[in-house]
């Protein structure tokens, strides 16, 4: 096979951080080459150099056997290099077709936009992806999964020979992932080389030919995906063996009911949902994409208005019409979309951690106590292992996993009794996942009430004392946590359309 990309001795420095140290990477035509490592290992930085977003400080970069300088994304596109970013970069007010071809729109005479041709070309790409999506739909009205598909279509529209996919399946369900893998295999057969960055270890064996592992900004090794055990890859990533302890479900039958939701409704998204969670309990919410899990969380938190329903906190009915009402009631919500709803990306780490608790650091005269904020932020940076050169680093410059930890720190500082975590480990590597699992377990052990929403069944089963399963806006069953519940049992309830509520498998 021909070598499409060869990177040797790559160096990159940012203020206070030596991000890449003598890194090497190769990509062959017609292969999927997985790039693995913990958050902060340097994977995305290396690919941003290849795609022209960053410029290297040292080393050699060859494309198709020739040394090149890629000083802009357009230069990378001209060399046939496309990238699908982990964080979406679409314009919500434009249509799907307009996003795909922005700056390259077909024109009629006198420079007028040819909308019909634009939509037809987008429809062709969607058809090749086996994707049922209206090119004229506004991107802002689409789900995160559909927005991700638009990002993929945009990259494919450049007819790239090198395609970088940074966490492409983070927001996709199993059916959408299967469709994406069909697309990837088709591209492979056409000689396209694909760099695949993902923290979902089960995807490695399914889609990758080779795996390169990075750790702390350095190259570790390149191995064959088929003949290398996942455990060995994990050990190379984290520099240690990661062992998950089996879930022990505590007896909480006598514990106080912290949160009770009854007759919750919102259009067709939420239909007569009711459940309760006890102090010290982790209740997992499972279901397929569009089942209504996130919608339930947003309605409880006041981010979306509910049509009807009663919410009780510690036995007292509370009125929640906006997020500030939920925070006053002791409820914190970590959104699945940290970029838009969890972080102030233009602010630093310190300010983001303090954001929900500014009253603690404000004097009677409205003056902020910067030193108290600094000490508190540094304490949470240490507790959660947030990798940042300082508390004044802009949060947008952190890796995805460290951004997520900053959001968690914000709600821990607020000391909410009830914490809702929506996709808490989305885009987070296996080592950091283990840390967050232990963190959630320790919070529950301290008496916090935890709700976890996750699209990853192993994660739900690993964390949950009970598992609430939803389908098409309805709660179809609640299963006990632990070894007696299987993925098959969860999926049966997740596909049980218009089902009656099943008997509760745990505490009420």
How would you describe what is shown here?
By secondary structure, the protein is of the alpha/beta class. The chain contains 17 helices and 20 strands. Helix 13 crosses helix 14. It is globular. The N and C termini lie far apart (60 Å). The C terminus is likely disordered.
Write the layout of secondary structure elements.
Elements: E1 3-14, E2 17-28, E3 32-36, H1 43-50, E4 58-63, E5 66-67, H2 73-78, E6 81-84, H3 96-100, H4 115-128, H5 144-156, E7 162-166, H6 174-189, E8 193-197, H7 201-207, E9 210-215, E10 218-224, H8 230-238, E11 257-266, E12 270-278, E13 282-286, H9 293-301, E14 308-313, E15 316-318, H10 323-328, E16 331-334, H11 338-341, H12 349-354, H13 370-384, H14 400-414, E17 418-422, H15 430-445, E18 449-453, H16 457-463, E19 466-471, E20 474-480, H17 487-494
Parallel strand pairs: 3-8, 3-9, 6-7, 7-8, 13-18, 13-19, 16-17, 17-18
Antiparallel strand pairs: 1-2, 1-4, 4-5, 9-10, 11-12, 11-14, 14-15, 19-20
Helix pairs in contact: 13-14
Summarize the structure.
This protein has 508 residues and is α/β, with parallel strands linked by helices. Helices cover 32% and strands 24% of the residues. Helix 13 packs across helix 14.
Tally of alpha and pi helices: 17
Low-confidence stretches: 499-508
N-end to C-end Cα span = 60 Å
Rg over alpha carbons = 24 Å
Strand content: 15-25%
Number-wise, the strands total 20
How confident overall, as mean pLDDT?
87
> Residue share in helices?
25-40%
- Largest sheet: number of strands, sense, barrel closure: 6 strands, mixed
Strand order of the largest sheet: 6-7-8-3-9-10
């Amino acid at each position: 096979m021909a070598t499409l990309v060869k990177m040797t001795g790559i160096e990159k420095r940012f203020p206070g951080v030596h991000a890449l140290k003598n890194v090497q990477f190769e990509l062959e035509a017609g292969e999927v080459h997985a790039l693995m490592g913990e958050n902060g290992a340097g994977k995305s930085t290396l690919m941003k150099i290849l795609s022209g977003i960053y410029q290297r400080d040292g080393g050699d970069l060859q494309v198709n056997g020739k040394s090149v300088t890629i000083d802009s994304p357009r230069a990378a596109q001209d060399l046939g290099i496309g990238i699908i970013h982990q964080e979406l970069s679409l314009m919500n007010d434009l249509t799907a077709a307009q996003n795909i071809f922005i700056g390259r729109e077909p024109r009629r005479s006198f420079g007028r936009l040819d909308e019909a041709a634009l939509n037809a070309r987008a429809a062709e790409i969607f058809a090749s992806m086996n994707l049922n999506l209206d090119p004229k739909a506004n991107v802002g009205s689409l789900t995160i999964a559909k927005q991700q598909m638009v990002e993929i279509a945009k990259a494919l529209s450049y007819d790239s020979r090198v395609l970088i996919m940074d966490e492409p399946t983070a927001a996709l369900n199993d059916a959408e992932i299967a469709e994406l893998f069909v697309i990837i295999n088709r591209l492979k057969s056409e000689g396209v080389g694909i760099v695949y960055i993902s923290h979902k270890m089960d995807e490695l064996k399914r889609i990758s030919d080779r795996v390169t592992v990075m750790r702390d900004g350095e190259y570790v090794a390149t191995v064959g995906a088929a003949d290398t055990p996942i455990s060995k890859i994990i050990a190379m990533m984290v520099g240690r063996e990661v062992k998950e302890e089996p879930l022990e479900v505590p007896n909480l039958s006598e514990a106080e009911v912290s949160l009770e939701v009854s007759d919750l409704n919102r259009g067709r998204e939420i239909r007569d949902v009711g459940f309760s969670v006890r102090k010290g309990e982790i209740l997992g919410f499972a279901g397929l994409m569009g089942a209504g899990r996130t919608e339930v969380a947003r309605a409880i938190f006041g981010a979306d208005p509910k049509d009807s329903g009663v919410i009780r906190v510690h036995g007292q009915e509370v009125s929640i019409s906006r997020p500030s009402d939920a925070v006053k009631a002791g409820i914190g919500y970590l959104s699945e979309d940290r970029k838009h709803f969890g972080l102030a990306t233009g602010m630093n780490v310190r300010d983001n951690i303090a954001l929900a608790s500014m009253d603690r650091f404000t004097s009677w005269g409205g003056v902020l106590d910067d030193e108290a904020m600094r000490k508190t932020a540094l304490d949470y940076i240490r507790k959660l292992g947030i990798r940042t050169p300082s508390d004044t680093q802009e949060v947008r410059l952190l890796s995805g996993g460290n951004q997520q930890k900053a959001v968690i720190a914000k709600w821990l500082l607020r000391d909410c009794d009830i914490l809702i975590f929506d996709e808490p480990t989305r885009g987070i590597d296996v080592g950091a996942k283990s840390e967050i699992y232990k963190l959630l377990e320790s919070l529950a052990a301290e008496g916090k009430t935890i709700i976890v929403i996750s699209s990853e069944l192993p994660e739900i089963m690993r964390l949950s004392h009970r598992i609430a399963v939803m389908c098409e806006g309805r709660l179809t069953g609640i299963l006990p946590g632990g070894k007696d519940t299987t993925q098959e049992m969860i999926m049966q309830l997740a596909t049980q359309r218009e089902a009656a509520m099943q008997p509760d498998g745990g505490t009420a």
